[in-house]
Amino acid sequence: MSTPTPALASTDAVAHTSIPAGTSAVPAASRGDAFASFDVEAFEVPTSKDEAWRFTPLRRLRGLHDGSAPATGTLTVDVVAPEGITVETVGRDDPRLGAAGTPVDRVAAQAWTSFTDATVISVGQSSEISEPVMITMTGPGVGLTAYGHTQVRLAAFASAVVVLDQRGSGTVAENVELVIGDGARLTIVTVQDWAADAVHVAAHHALVGRDGVLRHTAVSIGGDLVRLSPTVRYAGPGGDAELLGVYFADAGQHLEQRLFVDHSEPHCRSNVMYKGALQGLSDEGKVDRDVPDAHTVWIGDVLIRAAAEGTETYEMNRNLVLTDGARADSVPNLEIETGEIVSAGHASATGRFDDEQLFYLRARGITEEQARRLVVRGFFHEVLAKIAVVEVRERLEHAIEAELAAVGV
Description:
single chain, 2 domains
């Protein structure tokens, strides 16, 4: 059964009905059947007519999608790792690379074809690392293009926390692999805090072993165009994946999240919760009339295959539009091939400030500006409170405050 939800209104799916393939309500093919290859030439150049690219402003990708963007710079990768972590710089011929997944689009394949060195971070069997691994990735610089590859590997029953902090200028395409062994637990926070000129396209490939646990948080607050595509697959039963996200778009920014959770093993769990806010300038406030309004895109696809009995899954996306002109597209999809599951559902909602909340706060002597900020803080709190690294959580809270102050919200 297949139940896409293209509308922006709130939808909580409990029962599902079949929709004939080929209708306008469903994609022509499941993402589970998507073509995959490490060879960039095996992919056609995407166009706006392709389902996977219809929301992305291709002209702003600076050639990442059509082969016209050779590497002209390099990414600087700095790793601060506690004792017990192995950090290596390896070449493309390292047999461990590609273990978590194969590119399913031309940009990811271009990144695979074009990177020179990969960073591999490994945690040994049964090792429990209490201090976070801090990876700082800095862009190649204004007008330059770079490709990257990062892999985090946890052996059986290992535990670690990783922060991937991305900043700087330039154009970047990359693949990030997360290989989680049986009974291992990985918590990873990725922060896209790029400069205003940056374009960043990334594919995250996660492979969760038997009874493995993944806690993946993606935060997008900077850059001109940022497109993230996290994919989760299970290598054995009992896997548990939680994907959290926060994004905040200003005028001119395009922030896109395209998730795919592929349930192919029995008795696995997934939970997806992404929250975003958008704001821009009114036509009167725009200095440059050609600057587009803020635009966010969230696509959440969950596939429950016939063999994935006992699956428990839920996905939710909420968007808060703070100013006129900003646009949020939100499309949750569930594809279910077996009725022997525990639960499956999805929800999506996009709206403005809750007038009742503002009235309640203002009636207690709080100014309208303060009331609006309190509402936004409360909106994001549910996700931010789950970020395990205190320093990162506080930094994001300050960044959100700065965003609100920029337009007087």
